[in-house]
Design brief:
Length: 521
Amino acid sequence: MTPKFWEFHTDNIHALDGGAFTLLTIQYNLAGGTLAAFAEKRPELRPLMDKIMKFDVSAQYLLTEVGHGLDAPNLETTATLLANGDFDLHTPHPNARKYMPPTGPFGGIPRIAVVFAQLMVNGENRGIRPFVVPLGDGKEMCKGVTARVVPQRGGIKPVDHAVTSFNHVRLPATALLGSLARPADLRANFISCIWRVSVGSLALATMAIPLISVNAYVAARYSLRRIVTASDGTRVPIMSFRTQQLPIMHAIAQVAVMRAHADDAARMYRDVSIDHRVRSGIAATAKASMTHHAWSSLATLTERIGAHGMFEHNNILQSELLMRGIRIAEGDVLVLSIRLANELLLGRYSMPKPRHPDCLLSRHEAGLFAECRSLLSKAGGNHRHESLARLLLPRCLPLVQAIGHRMAYEAALDANVPRPLVDLYEAGIVLFDSGWYVESAGLTRWDQFEMEDKAINAAMPHLEQYLLSLGADAYAVSPILTQESWEAFLDEMPIYTGKAELSLLSTPALQSEPVVVQAHL
C-alpha cells in the first residue's frame, strides 16, 4: 500500500461522481488488493492482475450475502472440490445470494469477481476461501451466473448493485486463492482472507476529506456572493452572519485536521511491526470519527444553501447520501466500534498512547474509558452480561469516536496545521459532548461557546487562504457557485411560455335597486 494508494482515496475528483468512486475502490482495493497478495507467488495470476490495474476488466468483491452481512463468517455459498481438481460453485438457497456488489452485464467490459465461499472437500467444511470467478463478458452473464439488479440508491450516481447467485458453476483448480488444507483456526483464516476490508475501512473513511472539501468550498463561495437586505436596509452577504460562518468554518477545520489524521493513520497502518488488531483499530477509529464529521457537516451545509441544497445538481445532498453508504461499506461503523471497544475494555490490546495526554480531547477519551470500565466492573467483568447489552453497547460508538478525535487532534498539532483551525476543531469536538466537559472538565456551557467564538474570530480573517488550501476550485461544478454560472444554468433549463388566459375570479354583477312592492288590502 503505497502513499499513492492513500492519496487516490482523498482526491477531490471523487466528489464529482460517487458511483465511479465505488467501482474504483472495489477494483483497486478489494478485488485487486486480494489478488495481488497471491499473484506475487503465482505467475499465472499476473495477466489478470494487469487487466485489473488497467481496468480492462471490471473486478468485483462478493463476500456478504442476503442472509449474512454482519455475520459473514457464516456465509453459505459453497465451493466443492471435484474429483478432477475443479470446483463446483453453488448458491444453495435465496438467502445465500451475494449482495450487493455490481455484477450486471453492462458497458461491454468483461466482469470478474473475487467470490468468497465455504470450501468443501470430501464432505468436510474447510473454511472460507476466495475464488476468482468470471461473471460475464459485458454483454451477457456467464453460464450459471445470475445477477438481479436492484433499484438505484436514492440521490447518487447510478451503480448496478445486484443480488448475485451461482448455479453449479464449474471453476478450474487455479480459481482457488489459498490452500486446500483445513486451517487450525477458522476465524483467523476468515480474517486473513478478508484483510482488504480493514484496509477499505480506513481508505473509505478518508473519502470524507474530498466530500467536505468540495462542498464546503461551494457553500462558502455561495455564501460570499448571496446578498440579503439587513434590518437597517444595508445589503450584506449571508457569510457575514455567524450562523453561516459556523458550519462552513467547522467543515474547513475538519478537512485540515482530517488530512493530518489520514496521513498519520496510513503511516501506522502500513507499519507491520504494529499488532494487526491495533492497525484494524486505527482504521475503525478513523472511520468512526471521519465519517461522522462528513455526515454531520454535509447535512448542515445542505441546509445552509437553502432550497439549492435539495437538488442533486449542487452535489451536497448527493455527497451526504454517499457518505451514508460509506458508513456501512467495508465494515458498519457501529459494529466496528462495538467490536473494538469490547476488545479494548477486556484488555486484549491497546490503541497507541496519547502523544498529548493533557489535552482536552485526550482527557475526554480517558473519561469515557473510565465510565465504560466502571460498567464492566459492575457486571463482574462479564462482557456478555445482560446489563452491558443495555448500557455499554450504546456507549461503544462515542468511545471509539473519542479515540479518533484525540488521534486526529494530536496528528494536526504535530503536523503544524494552522492553529485557528486546530482550535476550532477542538471547540467543535467539545460541543459534540458538551455535558461531559461540564461535568468532568470544568467547562461551563458558556465557556464552551466562548471557546468556539474565539476560534472562529481567529479563523475568519484567513477564510480566503483556507478556501484555496482546499484545492477544490477545479471540482466545484455547482451552478450556484457564481452569478454567471447560475444564469448559464437557468438558460439551459426547459422554458415554457404561451398566450393562455385563465380567469380565476368572476366579476360580480351589479345589483339593481331593490324593488319595493306595496300591498293594498
